[in-house]
Specification:
The protein has about 170 residues and is mostly beta strands. The protein is about 5% helix and about 55% strand.
Length: about 170
């Protein structure tokens, strides 16, 4: 369901992103209980929406790869930069989520990796297309502390520090 609010925000409930059909496997890329998005009010009045924030909670990011057919549910996903005036990238918060990688071999599905995740991606105020990010995942195998990745991403460059533990 979609709820539009007078303050220029939108709330999606039980969102599913599934860019493909016709494969025997589940090809959902994202399933989320709630996705909240807010827009710059002025940009809405000018009919040029500028996304300010995205907040996704209780979600599953599901990457599926079929070894036998070389098929992936991510292969049809295309992300294109918008044309026109360059806006500040939105801040993104991901909470209470799960990253999952499913491998299909000889027709059998196997969850190869499953990691709980909370993450924040914040647009840099100086460099409009640059993000800083913090990703927190499962407890380290030592049992002490959480896995963390920190970094900076901008088109053509990615810097990451930290480490990740898997539950499976």
């Amino acid at each position: 369901s979609i709820k539009y609010m007078a303050n220029g925000s939108v709330l999606f409930t039980d969102l599913v992103v599934q860019p493909c059909s016709g494969h025997a496997s589940n090809c959902d890329i994202i399933r989320a209980k709630k996705l909240f998005a807010s827009f710059d009010k002025k940009s809405l009045f000018l009919l040029k929406p500028n996304l300010k924030t995205i907040d996704v909670n209780d979600f599953l990011f599901n990457a599926v790869y079929d070894v036998d057919t070389n098929w992936s549910n991510l292969s049809r996903l295309k992300i294109k930069p918008s044309g026109g005036k360059l806006h500040k990238a939105p801040d993104i918060h991901l909470g209470s989520g799960m990253l999952q990688y499913v491998k299909i071999m000889n027709g059998q599905e196997e969850v190869a990796l499953s990691v709980p995740v909370d993450a924040d991606f914040k647009a840099d105020d100086v460099m409009r297309k640059r993000y800083t990010f913090n990703i927190t995942t499962a407890t380290m195998s030592s049992g002490y502390g959480l896995s963390k990745l920190q970094g900076i991403w901008e088109p053509g460059d990615l810097t990451v520090t930290g480490g990740v533990a898997s539950l499976s």
